[in-house]
Amino acid sequence: MARIDEITDGIHRICTTLDAGGRPFQFNQFLIVDERPALIHTGMHGMYEDVRAAVAEVVDPGKLAYVILLHFESDECGGMDRFLEGAPHSVLACSALSNILNLSGWNFAGRVEGHLDGEVIDLGRHKLRFLETPHVHHWDSMMLFDETTRSLFPSDLFIQAGDQPPVVTENLGPEMCGFYRDVGIFAHEEPVRRVVDRVESLDPAWVHGMHGGSLPREAFPYFTRALREERFAYEGKLLGRPLEQPA
Ligand SMILES: [Fe+2]
Ligand SMILES: [Fe+2]
User: Fold this and answer.
1) What is the distance between the alpha carbons of residues 240 and 247, in angstroms, rounded to a whole number?
2) Nearest ligand to the C-alpha atom of residue 41
3) In this structure, are residues 172 and 165 in contact, taking their beta carbons and an 8 Å threshold?
4) 61 Cβ partners below 8 Å, 6+ apart?
5) Ligand nearest to the Cα of 40, by number
6) pLDDT tens digit sequence for 25-65
7) pTM for this entry
8) Which of 227, 138, 221, 220 is nearest to 189 (CA)?
């Protein structure tokens, strides 16, 4: 079952904790309640009914105006077709690259709009600004920044494995870097550190990641510091599995 908690002013975290190789791991979606409600990430295909039920505790899922994916991966968008079908006035919003690379050239026929860095979606009170963040961790990756609550939605950056509370205040930065080294989601530290500088300069009051709890302002430096000081890029492991490297 998915649980839903309002973290701050209209931003609700929908969280499902699953078993990932013997360890709990969380998948979050964020519902922004406003004149034009938005759902950021949909969860995987099999999570659709639970996520929809959680949305329905707060707003009619048929009234969603935006379904937003931050890069093309099943935990971002596995439920996109059914959320769009169920909300006739909704549109799928993503980065321009997600649209060009991953939503064109095959049989996807849904309503979609691709956005460039700096563009803003106006939900009413909340305004979502697009940040293009290539290679953090995909070519098409982007993040969102809500100007109203100073909330950053960084997708898979600032991850915390395990069963976390809705709001995390402890220093899990070094553990995050160890997790990244183990799963191998970043090719290199450099593009990630550039984005860390950029998002830090936005002075976010909240960071709502896809995996783990939301970080309030006081906990954010634990994670930015770890990303600056520790290694976290790919070093031969994929999802914990060492790869045989050619000599
Ligand atoms: Fe991802
Ligand atoms: Fe993810």
Assistant:
1) 21
2) 2
3) no
4) 52, 55, 83, 86, 87
5) 2
6) 999 999 999 999 999 999 999 999 999 999 999 999 999 99
7) 0.97
8) 227
